Amino acid sequence: MNSILEAATRASTTGNMQVYSIIVTSEQQIKEKLWEAHFRQNMVKQAPLVFTFCADFNRFNKWCSFREAIPGYDNFLSFMTAAIDALLAAQNFAVAAESFGLGICYLGTTTYNAEKIIDILNLPGSVVPVTTLVVGYPEEVPELTDRLPVEAVVHMESYQDYSRESIDRLYAEKEALTLTAKLLEENQLKTLAQIFTQKRYTKKDNITFTNKFLDVLRKQGFMNNE
Ligand SMILES: Cc1cc2nc3c(=O)[nH]c(=O)nc-3n(C[C@H](O)[C@H](O)[C@H](O)COP(=O)(O)O)c2cc1C
User: Fold this and answer.
1) What's the pLDDT tens digit per position in 111-157?
2) Nearest to residue 34, comparing CAs of 45, 24, 23?
3) Which of 79, 111, 163, 171 is 20 to 30 A from 90, alpha carbon to alpha carbon?
4) Residue 192 φ then ψ, to 5°
5) Which residues line ligand 1 (CB under 6 A)?
Protein backbone atom coordinates (compact mmCIF):
# COMPACT_ATOMS: atom_id res chain seq x y z
CA MET A 1 0.00 0.00 0.00
CA ASN A 2 2.89 2.36 0.71
CA SER A 3 4.12 2.10 -2.89
CA ILE A 4 0.64 2.97 -4.13
CA LEU A 5 0.41 5.98 -1.83
CA GLU A 6 3.92 6.97 -2.87
CA ALA A 7 2.81 6.80 -6.53
CA ALA A 8 -0.18 9.01 -5.66
CA THR A 9 2.07 11.63 -4.10
CA ARG A 10 4.33 11.59 -7.19
CA ALA A 11 1.48 13.08 -9.24
CA SER A 12 2.12 16.59 -10.52
CA THR A 13 0.53 19.32 -8.41
CA THR A 14 0.00 23.02 -8.97
CA GLY A 15 3.27 24.84 -8.14
CA ASN A 16 4.24 21.71 -6.19
CA MET A 17 1.98 22.98 -3.40
CA GLN A 18 0.37 19.52 -2.97
CA VAL A 19 -2.91 21.05 -1.91
CA TYR A 20 -4.74 17.79 -1.28
CA SER A 21 -5.05 15.13 1.41
CA ILE A 22 -5.95 11.46 1.30
CA ILE A 23 -7.99 9.99 4.16
CA VAL A 24 -7.60 6.22 4.53
CA THR A 25 -10.52 4.41 6.15
CA SER A 26 -10.01 0.87 7.40
CA GLU A 27 -12.28 0.76 10.49
CA GLN A 28 -15.58 -0.97 9.79
CA GLN A 29 -17.51 1.49 11.97
CA ILE A 30 -16.36 4.46 9.92
CA LYS A 31 -16.93 2.55 6.70
CA GLU A 32 -20.55 1.97 7.77
CA LYS A 33 -21.00 5.72 8.16
CA LEU A 34 -19.35 6.39 4.82
CA TRP A 35 -21.58 3.72 3.27
CA GLU A 36 -24.63 5.79 4.31
CA ALA A 37 -23.09 8.95 2.85
CA HIS A 38 -22.35 7.14 -0.43
CA PHE A 39 -26.03 6.19 -0.90
CA ARG A 40 -25.38 2.75 0.58
CA GLN A 41 -23.20 1.52 -2.25
CA ASN A 42 -22.17 -1.81 -0.80
CA MET A 43 -18.58 -1.73 -2.00
CA VAL A 44 -17.88 0.90 0.68
CA LYS A 45 -18.55 -1.73 3.37
CA GLN A 46 -17.01 -4.61 1.43
CA ALA A 47 -13.71 -3.01 0.37
CA PRO A 48 -10.87 -3.48 2.86
CA LEU A 49 -9.83 0.14 2.37
CA VAL A 50 -11.61 3.32 1.35
CA PHE A 51 -9.60 6.37 0.23
CA THR A 52 -11.18 9.82 0.28
CA PHE A 53 -9.29 12.37 -1.80
CA CYS A 54 -9.76 15.93 -0.59
CA ALA A 55 -9.00 19.36 -1.98
CA ASP A 56 -6.98 20.73 0.94
CA PHE A 57 -5.66 24.25 1.41
CA ASN A 58 -5.71 23.90 5.23
CA ARG A 59 -2.14 22.62 5.54
CA PHE A 60 -0.75 25.13 3.03
CA ASN A 61 -2.64 28.06 4.60
CA LYS A 62 -1.22 27.15 8.02
CA TRP A 63 2.29 26.94 6.63
CA CYS A 64 1.85 30.40 5.06
CA SER A 65 0.49 31.88 8.30
CA PHE A 66 3.38 30.47 10.35
CA ARG A 67 5.87 31.88 7.83
CA GLU A 68 4.69 35.51 7.72
CA ALA A 69 2.86 34.98 4.42
CA ILE A 70 -0.78 35.91 3.91
CA PRO A 71 -2.68 33.17 2.07
CA GLY A 72 -5.22 34.24 -0.58
CA TYR A 73 -6.71 30.83 -1.16
CA ASP A 74 -10.28 31.18 0.08
CA ASN A 75 -11.82 31.51 -3.38
CA PHE A 76 -13.35 29.27 -6.01
CA LEU A 77 -10.26 29.16 -8.24
CA SER A 78 -8.23 27.88 -5.29
CA PHE A 79 -10.84 25.18 -4.73
CA MET A 80 -10.47 24.15 -8.40
CA THR A 81 -6.67 24.14 -8.04
CA ALA A 82 -6.86 21.90 -4.99
CA ALA A 83 -9.54 19.68 -6.55
CA ILE A 84 -7.36 19.17 -9.64
CA ASP A 85 -4.38 18.23 -7.43
CA ALA A 86 -6.55 15.75 -5.51
CA LEU A 87 -7.93 14.17 -8.70
CA LEU A 88 -4.50 13.79 -10.31
CA ALA A 89 -3.27 12.07 -7.15
CA ALA A 90 -6.36 9.82 -7.19
CA GLN A 91 -5.78 8.73 -10.77
CA ASN A 92 -2.08 8.04 -10.10
CA PHE A 93 -3.25 5.98 -7.12
CA ALA A 94 -5.78 4.10 -9.28
CA VAL A 95 -3.25 3.22 -11.98
CA ALA A 96 -0.67 2.10 -9.39
CA ALA A 97 -3.25 -0.01 -7.52
CA GLU A 98 -4.36 -1.74 -10.72
CA SER A 99 -0.73 -2.37 -11.69
CA PHE A 100 -0.44 -4.37 -8.44
CA GLY A 101 -3.50 -6.44 -9.38
CA LEU A 102 -5.90 -4.62 -7.04
CA GLY A 103 -9.39 -3.55 -8.10
CA ILE A 104 -10.63 0.02 -7.69
CA CYS A 105 -13.87 1.93 -8.11
CA TYR A 106 -14.39 5.67 -7.99
CA LEU A 107 -17.38 7.01 -6.05
CA GLY A 108 -18.99 10.12 -7.50
CA THR A 109 -21.27 10.25 -4.48
CA THR A 110 -18.44 12.03 -2.64
CA THR A 111 -19.51 15.39 -4.02
CA TYR A 112 -23.22 14.58 -3.63
CA ASN A 113 -22.98 14.17 0.11
CA ALA A 114 -19.77 16.05 0.85
CA GLU A 115 -21.18 17.64 4.02
CA LYS A 116 -21.79 14.21 5.59
CA ILE A 117 -18.29 13.03 4.65
CA ILE A 118 -16.82 16.20 6.17
CA ASP A 119 -18.55 15.31 9.46
CA ILE A 120 -17.60 11.64 9.41
CA LEU A 121 -13.92 12.28 8.61
CA ASN A 122 -13.56 15.43 10.76
CA LEU A 123 -12.42 17.58 7.86
CA PRO A 124 -11.57 21.13 8.95
CA GLY A 125 -12.23 24.35 6.99
CA SER A 126 -10.40 24.68 3.64
CA VAL A 127 -10.79 20.91 3.09
CA VAL A 128 -13.43 19.46 0.75
CA PRO A 129 -13.71 15.80 -0.32
CA VAL A 130 -13.78 15.52 -4.11
CA THR A 131 -13.58 11.83 -4.88
CA THR A 132 -13.34 8.42 -3.24
CA LEU A 133 -11.66 5.21 -4.32
CA VAL A 134 -12.66 1.87 -2.86
CA VAL A 135 -9.86 -0.63 -3.20
CA GLY A 136 -9.78 -4.37 -2.82
CA TYR A 137 -8.81 -7.72 -4.24
CA PRO A 138 -11.01 -8.38 -7.28
CA GLU A 139 -12.97 -11.65 -7.34
CA GLU A 140 -12.89 -11.58 -11.11
CA VAL A 141 -11.25 -9.61 -13.87
CA PRO A 142 -14.17 -8.23 -15.86
CA GLU A 143 -13.94 -7.44 -19.55
CA LEU A 144 -12.99 -3.89 -20.41
CA THR A 145 -15.97 -1.57 -20.60
CA ASP A 146 -16.73 0.09 -23.93
CA ARG A 147 -15.40 3.49 -24.92
CA LEU A 148 -16.25 5.92 -27.68
CA PRO A 149 -13.74 5.70 -30.54
CA VAL A 150 -10.61 7.78 -29.87
CA GLU A 151 -11.58 10.19 -32.66
CA ALA A 152 -14.70 11.09 -30.67
CA VAL A 153 -12.65 12.84 -28.02
CA VAL A 154 -9.61 14.07 -29.96
CA HIS A 155 -9.67 17.27 -32.00
CA MET A 156 -6.72 18.11 -34.25
CA GLU A 157 -5.57 21.75 -33.93
CA SER A 158 -8.95 23.23 -33.04
CA TYR A 159 -12.36 22.04 -31.87
CA GLN A 160 -14.35 20.35 -34.63
CA ASP A 161 -17.98 20.60 -33.56
CA TYR A 162 -20.18 17.54 -33.95
CA SER A 163 -22.77 17.19 -36.68
CA ARG A 164 -25.84 14.99 -36.42
CA GLU A 165 -24.02 12.49 -38.68
CA SER A 166 -20.85 12.40 -36.59
CA ILE A 167 -22.85 11.95 -33.36
CA ASP A 168 -24.75 9.06 -35.00
CA ARG A 169 -21.47 7.48 -36.11
CA LEU A 170 -19.52 7.99 -32.87
CA TYR A 171 -22.30 6.61 -30.64
CA ALA A 172 -23.37 3.79 -33.00
CA GLU A 173 -21.25 1.09 -31.37
CA LYS A 174 -22.30 2.02 -27.83
CA GLU A 175 -25.96 2.14 -28.85
CA ALA A 176 -25.73 -1.29 -30.49
CA LEU A 177 -24.33 -3.06 -27.38
CA THR A 178 -26.33 -5.92 -25.85
CA LEU A 179 -25.99 -4.07 -22.55
CA THR A 180 -27.77 -1.07 -24.08
CA ALA A 181 -30.65 -3.24 -25.30
CA LYS A 182 -30.92 -4.73 -21.80
CA LEU A 183 -31.00 -1.30 -20.14
CA LEU A 184 -33.65 -0.04 -22.55
CA GLU A 185 -35.80 -3.08 -21.84
CA GLU A 186 -35.38 -2.76 -18.07
CA ASN A 187 -36.14 0.96 -18.06
CA GLN A 188 -38.80 0.89 -20.77
CA LEU A 189 -37.12 3.78 -22.59
CA LYS A 190 -36.43 4.47 -26.24
CA THR A 191 -32.82 5.69 -26.29
CA LEU A 192 -29.68 5.24 -24.22
CA ALA A 193 -29.41 9.00 -23.84
CA GLN A 194 -32.80 8.97 -22.08
CA ILE A 195 -31.39 6.58 -19.50
CA PHE A 196 -28.83 9.24 -18.63
CA THR A 197 -31.23 12.20 -18.65
CA GLN A 198 -34.25 10.50 -17.05
CA LYS A 199 -32.69 7.89 -14.74
CA ARG A 200 -29.01 8.29 -13.98
CA TYR A 201 -28.17 12.00 -14.00
CA THR A 202 -31.38 14.00 -13.98
CA LYS A 203 -31.60 17.79 -14.07
CA LYS A 204 -33.52 17.76 -10.79
CA ASP A 205 -30.78 15.80 -8.99
CA ASN A 206 -28.04 17.86 -10.59
CA ILE A 207 -29.60 21.08 -9.31
CA THR A 208 -30.22 19.69 -5.82
CA PHE A 209 -26.63 18.45 -5.49
CA THR A 210 -25.17 21.58 -7.09
CA ASN A 211 -26.77 23.70 -4.40
CA LYS A 212 -25.70 21.34 -1.62
CA PHE A 213 -22.12 21.38 -2.91
CA LEU A 214 -22.06 25.17 -3.25
CA ASP A 215 -23.15 25.35 0.42
CA VAL A 216 -20.25 23.06 1.32
CA LEU A 217 -17.80 25.27 -0.58
CA ARG A 218 -19.16 28.33 1.25
CA LYS A 219 -18.95 26.62 4.64
CA GLN A 220 -15.43 25.33 4.04
CA GLY A 221 -14.29 28.84 3.05
CA PHE A 222 -13.80 28.59 -0.70
CA MET A 223 -16.38 31.10 -1.90
CA ASN A 224 -14.92 34.46 -0.93
CA ASN A 225 -14.72 35.64 -4.49
CA GLU A 226 -14.88 39.43 -4.09
C1 LIG B 1 -15.60 10.45 -11.00
C2 LIG B 1 -16.21 9.09 -11.08
C3 LIG B 1 -17.27 8.75 -10.25
C4 LIG B 1 -17.81 7.47 -10.27
N5 LIG B 1 -18.80 7.13 -9.39
C6 LIG B 1 -19.25 5.86 -9.31
C7 LIG B 1 -20.17 5.47 -8.30
O8 LIG B 1 -20.59 6.29 -7.47
N9 LIG B 1 -20.58 4.19 -8.29
C10 LIG B 1 -20.13 3.25 -9.18
O11 LIG B 1 -20.52 2.09 -9.10
N12 LIG B 1 -19.23 3.60 -10.14
C13 LIG B 1 -18.77 4.87 -10.22
N14 LIG B 1 -17.84 5.22 -11.16
C15 LIG B 1 -17.33 4.19 -12.09
C16 LIG B 1 -17.79 4.45 -13.52
O17 LIG B 1 -19.14 4.15 -13.66
C18 LIG B 1 -16.90 3.61 -14.44
O19 LIG B 1 -15.59 4.09 -14.35
C20 LIG B 1 -17.37 3.66 -15.89
O21 LIG B 1 -18.58 2.99 -16.01
C22 LIG B 1 -16.36 3.01 -16.82
O23 LIG B 1 -16.01 1.74 -16.39
P24 LIG B 1 -14.49 1.33 -16.23
O25 LIG B 1 -13.89 2.29 -15.24
O26 LIG B 1 -14.50 -0.07 -15.74
O27 LIG B 1 -13.89 1.45 -17.59
C28 LIG B 1 -17.30 6.51 -11.18
C29 LIG B 1 -16.25 6.86 -12.03
C30 LIG B 1 -15.71 8.12 -11.99
C31 LIG B 1 -14.54 8.47 -12.87
Assistant:
1) 999 999 999 999 999 999 999 999 999 998 889 999 999 999 999 99
2) 45
3) 171
4) -65, -35
5) 41, 105-109, 131, 145
